[in-house]
């Protein structure tokens, strides 16, 4: 079979090749170096903008330790191990789960403060550039904002300039506190398009 005969490969081969690469945790650049196929060509193949030749498929099958039948979809590919979404823990036993992956603009996180073993203590305050919006999902959150002390309950929202000294703590709800944070590092703010219009 001539190399170009593989141009009739199914359109679904691109996603299979991408899945095979991701199972190995390899980047397009790394695969390109190992196989001699440019990263741009690999990208076009994976997105279906170009169909691979037999020579390309043979190189990729060897690199991915896969059979041609597997890459063509004639045999099931091994299932990828699920990636656990593990919260990042830091300082004061707080757990943070990032909800956005891009850099720049608004950042979204879910925060969890553990249940207290003793009486609550006024939060330590920090200040930095930016603007923050937070919403309590569960429990009672103590927000110390400069010389003000607020206790927020589920459904309540606070918004403030983070140059103002601020800190949060579990207000002693008898359980953990969960809340969402949207943070604009350059001072970005939420903008409402509904103007508080209620359903009719």
Automatic annotation (TrEMBL):
Stretches assigned to coiled coil: none
This protein's GO cellular component annotations are: cytosol
| CDD domains per record | cupin_XRE_C (cd02209), HTH_XRE (cd00093)
The GO molecular function terms of this record are: DNA binding; DNA-binding transcription factor activity
Locate the HTH cro/C1-type domain: which residues?
Answer: 17-71
SMART domains on file: HTH_XRE
Q: Keyword GTP-binding, does the record have it?
A: no
**UniProt keyword annotations, A-Z:** DNA-binding
Q: Note down the stretches annotated as region Disordered.
A: 1-24
Output the Pfam families linked to this UniProt entry.
Cupin_2, HTH_31
Q: Which InterPro entries match?
A: Cro/C1-type_HTH, Cupin_2, Lambda_DNA-bd_dom_sf, RmlC-like_jellyroll, RmlC_Cupin_sf, TransReg_Diox_bact_type
PANTHER family reported in the protein's UniProt record = HTH-TYPE TRANSCRIPTIONAL REGULATOR, METHYLPHOSPHONATE SYNTHASE
Name under which the protein is recorded? XRE family transcriptional regulator
């Amino acid at each position: 079979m001539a190399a170009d005969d593989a141009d009739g490969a199914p359109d679904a081969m691109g996603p299979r090749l991408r899945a095979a690469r991701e199972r190995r945790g390899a980047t397009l650049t790394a695969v390109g170096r190992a196989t001699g196929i440019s990263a741009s060509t690999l990208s076009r193949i994976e997105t279906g903008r170009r169909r691979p030749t037999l020579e390309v498929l043979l190189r990729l099958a060897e690199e991915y330790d896969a059979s041609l039948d597997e890459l063509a979809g004639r045999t099931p590919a091994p299932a990828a191990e699920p990636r656990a979404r593990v919260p990042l823990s830091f300082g004061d036993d707080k757990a943070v789960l990032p909800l956005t992956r891009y850099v720049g603009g608004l950042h979204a996180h879910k925060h969890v403060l553990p249940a207290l073993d003793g009486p609550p203590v006024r939060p330590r305050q920090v200040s930095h550039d930016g603007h923050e919006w937070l919403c309590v999902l569960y429990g009672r959150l103590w927000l110390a904002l400069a010389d003000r002390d607020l206790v927020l309950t589920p459904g309540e929202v606070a918004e403030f300039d983070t140059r103002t000294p601020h800190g949060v703590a579990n207000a002693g709800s008898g359980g953990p506190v969960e809340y969402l944070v949207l943070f604009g590092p350059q001072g970005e703010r939420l903008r409402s398009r509904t103007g508080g219009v209620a359903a009719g």
